[in-house]
Design goal:
Layout lengths: L2 H17 L6 H39 L2
Length: 66
C-alpha cells in the first residue's frame, strides 16, 4: 500500500470516529459546569483556610523566638 492510500485510509477512519461522538445536551453541560465551579470554589476555600492556619501557627512560633 502506498503512503497516499494509508493517509486516505487514516482520514476515513478519523471521519468515522468523529461520527460516533455524542455531544452533551445543554442541560448536561450547564450541570457539569456548575459542579466544576462549585468544587473549585470549595477547594479554594479549603486551601484558604489551611493557608490561614499554617500562617497563624508560623507567626505564633516566630513570636515565641523573640
Amino acid at each position: 500500500m502506498s503512503k497516499i492510500n494509508e493517509i486516505v485510509k487514516f482520514y476515513d477512519q478519523v471521519k468515522q470516529e468523529i461520527g460516533k461522538i455524542t455531544w452533551p445536551s445543554r442541560a448536561e453541560l450547564v450541570n457539569s459546569t456548575l459542579i466544576v465551579v462549585g468544587v473549585v470554589l470549595v477547594f479554594g476555600l479549603v486551601c484558604l483556610g489551611v493557608d490561614y492556619c499554617i500562617n497563624t501557627v508560623i507567626q505564633f512560633l516566630l513570636k515565641i523566638g523573640k
